[in-house]
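Q: Could you predict the 3D structure of Rab-GAP TBC domain-containing protein?
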Amino acid sequence: MADGVSPLVWKEEREISFMSKCHKAMKEKGLDTKLRNTVFHWVRTQNKQSKLDPLTSLTKASVQWEKRIHKSLNSMCSDLETSLAKFRFQSELEELAEKWNELSTYNLDLSKYRPVYAPKDFLEVLITLSGYVPFTKEDEPKWEFAHLPLQVKTLDQLRKIYIEWSNGEPLLGVSPNMPSQVNDFPTLEAERIGLGERVAALGYAPVIQEYLKRGSPQCLRAKLWAQVLGAEVSAQQISYFNQLKRSVLEVDLMIDKLIFKDVQLTASNDDQYFVFEDLLYQVMLCFSRDCEVMQQLRGSTGTPLTVAIKGRQTSADSVTVFPPSGIIPFHGFTMYATPFCYLYDDPVQLYFMFRAFYLRYWHRLHYISTHPQGIVSLCLLYERLLESNEPLLWIHFRNINVNPGHLPPEQLLLLWDSILGYDCLEILPLLSLAILSFRKENIFQVNTLQNVDAVLADLSTISVIPLLQLALMKP
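A: Sure. Here are the predicted structure tokens for Rab-GAP TBC domain-containing protein:
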């Protein structure tokens, strides 16, 4: 101890010195960033939504919808004289294992299987949420959510969230070849690649999230998405994926046929996704077996069925939640995973990216709740944005239900950059408004559902980011 230094001061200096050395060692070994990312991802996974929704009408609707799905599953089993879950015969297990990387060659008779439900069925359920409003005239709106006592943002409030867009800042999805404002780079794309490489090397998730707000270059997107969602693959993830695969091989779930059917009806028939058919079978089958999905969504989804697995004597091992993930696939469910096929060719990395995105965002789109990012709030936000910002279109459009078209993969990836960057699904109703505004002149010229459908069906020429930026920038 130095002369004249009190024991208390000496102790504090020793503690500061130790913490400084410890922090330096952590930074040198990369543990500092890992610890910060762990805290960041943990905070984001904490479910702050109350388990009991304050609106009993929504709770009842959710329970009734869940019962309807379960009834449909059981009816299909009875009609097909099969069971929800059964152990596979050894010969079937071996054939499935042999064809695991080429599941498109695995022969199944799916002619009698049908999707449990389609998005259109769920839309009809959402529409009935307004059923208790006393409409007396035939020309009154049948799809309004305005009576629901939920708080949603105005366009001005959205402008404050998407500040980079509303201020007209250069965005990669608008004009990648425009001259860079930074002297070292010839174009905006080159500037974003240079900055993105530094951000990826740093590996700090909040910084990556901020970077994604202005769009990611295609060459960096796969790495940045995995980092911001904490979905990087290690030996532990590979082992877990193999466990899921083993579960698929051993137990035949009735929804396996629904998954095969859905891939065939959607991705296999799409000229942009059909080449990924085998990858999608692996990912979707393994997802159905992932009990961690149900655990992480506890309180955010419904109550799954519990069934006995046929084929062995009843024991603790022969009883399972159906499906183990708690998620019953609907028609089009596969399309949540298809854009990732343009980023990852490894099924393990593809799986954990899809799972992370689903757990963070997509599960909210098919569960009835009052969550501000849930499907009911998003529908209400869309309705109010349309009514307040396009009143003439609202009047013309109010009695017509419209089925959306599909965005091309490149535009989807840019849109999902924004969802990750702003960590927000409110961009979806905003995009809906932007598309309707963009095509309103054509919509005003038609008066039937079929013709409106035709106007909105083809989204292949839509550029997502310029439309969104235009919607947010003040006139």
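Q: Anything worth pointing out?
A: The CA atoms of residues 257 and 285 lie 10 Å apart.
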